[in-house]
Automatic annotation (TrEMBL):
Lineage of the species this protein comes from: Bacteria, Pseudomonadati, Pseudomonadota, Gammaproteobacteria, Pasteurellales
Record InterPro entries: GpU-like_sf, Phage_lambda_GpU-like, Phage_tail_protein-like_sf
Origin: domain of life: Bacteria
UniProt name for this protein: Phage tail protein
Source organism per UniProt: Haemophilus quentini
Length: 135
């Protein structure tokens, strides 16, 4: 659905404009084919989106916004935490075009357990967005 893409694009643009040390920012889950060329990276994706029809012709969505920060394994959790702090400040203190409500709900780490080539930290937020007329 287009509103989901618009929400992700809004976050991708915010990150690209404010965290220049991240070379690749993906709208959706990242798929890595060349880690040396693609890391560091951030992936912006939504999970568990649900629609609520509030008023005739308008809809409001609620979803989990996930922002995953990927770094080479050798850079460690302290660097992920440093970038996550920047991302969290952006998400928390920015006004949005499509998003009406943001609340942080989780922060977790992940690791490439097969090759030990990357690690990630994922910030998760509960968001409400939409209110676009239904056509």
């Amino acid at each position: 659905m287009l509103i989901h893409n618009e929400v992700r694009n809004e976050i991708v643009t915010l990150i690209k404009n404010n965290i220049p040390e991240i070379g690749n920012v993906y709208n959706g889950r990242a798929f890595f084919t060349s880690l040396k060329q693609q890391l560091p990276a951030i992936s912006v994706f939504l999970d568990d989106a649900e629609c609520d029809f509030k008023v005739m012709g308008e809809s409001e969505w609620q979803a989990e916004l996930n922002i995953s920060i990927f770094l080479p394994y050798s850079e460690g959790e302290p660097n992920i935490d440093r970038i996550a702090e920047k991302v969290n400040s952006l998400i928390t203190f920015t006004g949005y075009r499509h998003i009406q409500f943001v609340r942080g709900i989780q922060y977790r780490y992940g690791y490439d357990e097969d090759n030990a080539s990357w690690m990630n930290g994922t910030l998760s937020y509960l968001i409400e967005y939409g209110r676009a007329p239904i056509k």
